Each structure stands twice: as C-alpha cells, then as structure tokens.
Amino acid sequence: MTRSPLILVALALSFALGGCGSRSFGNKIDDQFIPSEVSDKIAKANPDLAVGSHIVVTSYNGVVLLAGQTPRSELKGMAEQAARSVQGVRKVHNELQVIQPSSALARSNDALLTTKIKTQMLTDNSISSSRIKVITENGIVYLLGLVSRQEATNASNLVQGVSGVQKIVKLFEYIN
C-alpha cells in the first residue's frame, strides 16, 4: 500500500525530469528505490551497521556509493555485501571510513558544502548538473554521474575551487 504512492511520485518526478540526462526511464525509477533497499539490507546485516555507524547510500544508473563511517572493518565488508545483494545494483563503491561516526556539526558542514557545490554547478554552463550527483561526507566530495570526460574535468575543477573540500572522489561513468 505505501509503496504505491511512492511509485506514483517517482513516476511523476521521472516524467518531469525526463529530458535531463541520458539514463533510461527504468534506470531513473530504479535509482529512486535502490538506496532504501540497500539501506534496509545493510541494517539487517548487523545491528552495529544500523545503530553504531553512519552510512549514506546513493545510486546513479545502478552504481551504488556507500559513504560515511563505521567503527570496524568487518562492518564495512558486511555493508558492501548487503549492497551487492540488491537487485538492480550493477556496481558498488565502498567508500566507508573505518572510524567513529561523524558528529552532527560535521554532517551540517557537509550539507552546506554540498549546497555550495550544487549552486555553483547550476550557474556553470559547462556542467550538466542534472547528470551529476554530489555527496559530501566528512569533507570528502563524491561525484557520480553519466558524463563526458570534459564534463567530469569541469565538475572536478569547480569542486576544487570550493573552500572546505578535503578531497574529491570521482566515480563517474563516461559516455565518451
């Protein structure tokens, strides 16, 4: 019952953004549901992943990013295995750091940094911001998307110029 309204919202959103990017309609729908399915599988894999870790799950074109922090290396591996078991996941980038979860202040700073980057991307005509996802965790900026090599370079150069970025991790798929 609750999934039906979510599907309708996802369909409406996909139709509205239909002209944005080169992903198929099915890929866009899958990317709406993959993160929650991966998060559920991770939470069920071990209680410490649900409570003692901070894990952000993002999907673009079936490519999943696991970012955040977990206190033990075996939990990092469990999270990756759980993510790989979800239908529709083509590839997993496990960027979890084996450290204590970040503070609320650090997460707030990460959100601000992501907003600054996305805002600058929107004003830059050399970057197709609708085809790039920006995720920031602990000062590390992850870039996902289906882009040309030039768009990837332009996006990376833009991010480098933003104050507060500790590191850039490019996880792009290239169309050329």
From TrEMBL:
The answer to keyword rRNA-binding applying to this record is no
- As given in the record, the signal peptide range reads 1-18
Q: Which Pfam families match?
A: BON
Domain of life, source organism: Bacteria
Q: Which UniProt keywords apply?
A: Signal
- What InterPro entries does this protein map onto? BON_dom, Lipoprotein_DolP, Transpt-assoc_nodulatn_dom_bac
Which residue ranges does the record assign to the BON domain?
30-100, 109-176
Q: Does the keyword RNA-binding apply?
A: no
Q: Which PANTHER family match?
A: BON DOMAIN-CONTAINING PROTEIN, OUTER MEMBRANE LIPOPROTEIN DOLP
Which named protein is this? BON domain-containing protein
> Which organism was this protein described from?
Pseudomonas cavernicola
